[in-house]
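for the writeup, i need someone to sanity check this before i put it in the appendix. the sequnce is what the collaborator sent (i think, or maybe the updated version? ugh). structure was predicted straight from it, no edits. if anything looks off just tell me and ill rerun, i have time this weekend
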Amino acid sequence: MSMLQGTRKTKLSNQQQPALSNTLIARINHLASLVRNLPSSLPLEPSKSMYQFSLDADFEKEEGTFAAFSRTLECVFQTHTLGRDEEIIFTERGRRCEDLIHFFKTCMRPMTGSERETIRTAWLEWLIRGAKATGGSIPKKRRVIVSSSDSEDEALNLKPRVHDFFKKPTRPVPKPTAASRSEPSATIDLISSSSKSEDDSIHTTLKPPPRATRGQKRKEKADMGNDSDIDQLPPNKQGKLNMFGWTSMTRDEAHEKWRNEAKASDTRSAKLAEQERERREVKAAHKREVDRLRQQRHRARTRALKKDQPRTPNARASTGLQHQQTGGSDDREELADLAEISRPHGAAWKKIRNGKNGGVVQQRHKKTNWFHPFLWTHINRMAPQVGWSATLLARSLQRDHPELFSRLSKGTIQHWLSKHGKRWSTQTLKSVANRRVLTASGRAGVLTKYPEIIFEAKTRLINLRKSGIPVNRVLGRSILLALIKRLQPALLDTFKCSERFVGDFFSSVLGWSVRKGTRAAAHIPDNATELCERTFFRIVHAVVMYDIPATLIVGMDQTGVYVLPNNNTTYEETGVRQVNVAAKDEKRAYTLCVATSADGDILPFQQVWSGQSTRSLPDSDANGMGP
């Protein structure tokens, strides 16, 4: 596997790709020269820049480096807004534009040859044309012009410095003749190629030296050959890297070098990990110390406040004492019958219950009706003062009126507030107008748009109660799900019909609440223990006297399996005097007999059904009824 920057991998291949070609690198460098010389009128590194060249890691992992690279350039240069033949226009210059070159070289390394060619034709050439269209240009190099206006030494100083090995060997310079002395010496003058005026420099044409005759040439060669002061010129040869001290490595030396570098890298990584772990431990210890000191200061302040305040038996007495010190009433105890006072409608029908024909005697109310006018007045007046905060409202009411609001919690107040602003919800205002919790409002939530479902559900549930069958949330949910599946099956894709929704449906649509059955249940006999003891001794007497084996000693028990749900609790209209429950005495069930023998055998189960004709019996050809 190749080690690529950022562990970038293409989706097509995980093998190492060849290096970038010289042609491709040349085109990338050409783009780099253009973006470095963009017009100065463009903003330089603006603060709100769109030029952020980086790959999306998740998109690269799913689609590959090629797709992630193209997507990044499309987002940066907004190519979806360009026309068919419209060029890309650069909107800024500076370091971020130069990051584009590094982005090209880094992302194209793991790509295949076809992907690189596609990137070159689709993006690289397009960006080069766009840089030129924006105004980017590469400055031309200055050219050398021969002129007689300068000295020869100034021209020679412009030559680049070259290693001694690569310098050309010096050759003897012939002695100047009389004709050459009369000619002016030629020099090199540098002028800018961008100069368009003929007056900027003087262009002169060198006169060619006079051609030597054959006799003069033979005389010069003889003089050069006879001169003993000139050393023999070295032969031309090609330079090698070993002349600079470089030697090639063997395979074993290369492997050893790589192993040493890997060990050094592992050592540095382990050292950095250890330093990071120590830094985290020091930071955690510092945080624990700061938390400890903060808690210590908090406890000290709490103890100081307790010392300044007088000791009271409980919080309620403390609240009462504080109110008494501020001039309040001495009697601050909670009203014992506050729940009964807040529900005046239930006092009349409860008095009629005498435990006989009038119905079961009802217990006292335990929940307070906070929508009573005398209670809601204090709540509504205090809410704007505390900024409609449930916590502050509960504390303020308990502080000012502990005898009325000692049991009011912030969770209860939170249900009254609207979710769309600092005000009471619409349902709360309706309950206040009704002076109690509003029931039978007719609101069915998500089923409001389907009146046929509501009508059929109401009809079935009411008929079940008329027949005396107990109705609970499980049975109601089953009925609603069956109706929705038959009439509006698409609704079940988003609607789950929870048991809480079923309870709200009973309360708002039918006006039902949870009620207890008013018929008394059967009682266990007072001499049940004596009867069990007599039965036990009868069994012992029969086993001993008649020598009954363990196989014939069978212990059997029976249990009732209800065909319909049978429960003493059902939903019924709020406030009715009598709650009739069917199957209280006549249970819609069958008896299941479970029997085992004394030697450990389990006998087959038996079902017992009641009936008065042969229709209650299974068919003669039923399974298990054969001879």
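Residues 315-434 form one domain. The first strand starts at residue 143 and ends at 147.
thx in advance!!
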